[in-house]
What does this fold into?
Amino acid sequence: MSLVSLRDYQEDALKRMRNGCILNGGVGSGKSRTGLAYYYTMHGGQVNTDHYVEMKHPRDLYIITTARKRDEDEWDLELCTFLMSRNPELNRYKNKIVIDSWNNIKKYIDVKDAFFIFDEQRVVGYGVWTRSFLKITSKNKWILLSATPGDTWLDYVPVFIANGFYKNKTDFARQHIIYNPFVSYPSVKGYMNEGRLIRYRNSILVNMDFERQTLPHHETIITSYDVDAYKEVVSKRWNIYENKPIDNAGEYCFVLHRIVNSSEDRVKKLIQILTDHPKAIIFYNYDYELDILKRALDGWYPYTEWNGHKHEPILTGDKWCYLLQYTAGCEAWNCITTDTIIFYSENYSYKKMTQAAGRIDRMNTPYKNLYYFHFKSTSKIDGAMYKALARKKTFSEKGFAPMFSNDKDKTPRDDSKVVVHYESKSGPSKFEQMTGMHISDYCEEYNNWEDPSNPLYGKRLTEDPDNPLYKGDNL
It folds into this structure.
């Protein structure tokens, strides 16, 4: 048997991979091994052979992953298959191998002529990580691994730029984005030339046709809650936990969630599930939920936790619970010693829910049937959340509580940021002539009217003829 062996679907994906691609496979599909196999074959190695084929002059290898996956040495285990190691004494080759987290990506912007594997999609938006990513990809070979590569075209912009499809974000905006003209900030209404975007996406996205051997069973557990307290908050908009008026939509939803999730019935249902499924991973969102879970389990049920406060390992034995906060533990680790996940509360993000479910759905799990228990009440906020997740969308607090969308809950309006549909305008717009910038760049760069470096300093009012938005001129 070959030392470097891939499954059929992994080998098929390997043949379709190229520099700058996104390897898109579901959680537990073996993206890490397939990504390393691409690096291995790129330097002369061969997979699924009857003997190990050595690489020839491999480049330095940098793997950018999550902090947890780095600290638990998961990538080191995969490297062993290819006779590579971070330890120079154990590495068969003389190349340098670095495994680090996304938090430290800025350290590697000066690296040249190496190979980068970016594990998990973290290049959304235009922050420090994305800017560092673009600098690295301009000077090195690279691939990106992701189970959830993007929900909107904006999620793909950094990868499109890295592949040379667009010069920068502004170039993408000019060619494709239609802004909403009826809001006071840059809001995307739609996209133009989507056929081109689809072609670009298909050219870089390598899907792994992975057929799972497991059978997931999702069960919704209906729990009761304090209806009177819920109605009081809705009618009075009063924070019953801090005894003060509710200021915004985020606080409003938090208070309603706390009423619903603090139900004693929810704890009783949890204990009933543990009776039939003694080894379980429990996901939660907030610290108050962690306190409820610990009070329910203390003294009679062994548990450990992984969150922003503690990083404890999972227990062994026939009876245990692992308490996981979504943000800290929904990705980049796995467990094959249990077949049960309990979602004590649901997360707003569909991506996080998908990643969380994948912690036990691995290729090497010994379980055929996997059980997922979703706690849900009949409250309006739970219903709205489940509808959003069913549509593979993220739950919007402001959408659920529009009555808080007032001036108190908004940043001051900047009339210069009123964006009008400009696709029919030919040549530089009046705004660009005056500021020397495209509207999307301007809105990112300048937020302070008192800053003298602002090209529109002193021209705040649309009644001012010198303002490019005077009388609704197109941008």
Observations:
- The longest helix spans residues 249-261.
